[in-house]
Amino acid sequence: MTVNSSRSKTTQEFSHKSTNGSVDLRLFSEICSQFITNRFQDARYKHVQGEPWKQTFPAYIAGVIRKSDYGISMAIVALALVARYQDALLLRSCCCAHTVDEACRLFLIAYIIAGKVLYDEHISRRFWRRVSDEQYSCASLGRLEMQFYDMVDWRVRIDLVAYAMTFGEVMQSYRNIASLQHLPKENSPAYQRIKTALRSTRPSRNITNPISRSGGRGAIDEEMAYQVLRSFQGGTSVQLTTFNVKTRKHRSAIA
């Protein structure tokens, strides 16, 4: 995000670098889809082999990430929250979502909450309503968000350990896909270095930043992120690198 400020910090983001230097959202959204639907050995979702699952769900995930214009790290945090939600469903003996619409809704709400986990800025529900193509009203988004909080008992804090575990599962999914698709070497996953400005928190409700370490700053520490990077280096089918990218301004993201 580009903000006129002399104070900024660098955070690390996992992405898939295509030949033109952009993030391959098609592949990444496919990984997210597999993470959500195939995380457990027992079938968490029914009919996941059908065309709606292979096309609609990954396309929806890619659309949310693209239209929101937020980084891939936010999607990884969302996946960690989805996993926590799925675990809570099992503990409460609740039925798992087993339709494409339910899975899409789960990812969207987790992605919205991930924005509160990673960023101090208040992102309005009007913005997320536009991201969802007006599929949900602001009131519906608020209600679904509160249902998510209730299911996980408000445990939405994502520390480096939880982030690293999710990152590892994402990497394993990438290896599985890469072994089948024979992806070229230049299309390897990478860490982007993104400059994000430090701004004061403007919460929509009295919700403290779940991973805030000090002073209301919500980003994962850079050196700790490098520890995650190093811990997953050396894979047989994946090469991790670092590169710089320009900052982006999130359109209409701040209320």
UniProtKB/TrEMBL annotation:
The record's Gene Ontology cellular component field reads: cyclin-dependent protein kinase holoenzyme complex; nucleus
Q: Which InterPro entries match?
A: Cyclin_PHO80-like
Q: Name one GO molecular function term.
A: protein kinase binding
Q: What is this protein called?
A: Cyclin N-terminal domain-containing protein
Organism of derivation: Psilocybe cf. subviscida
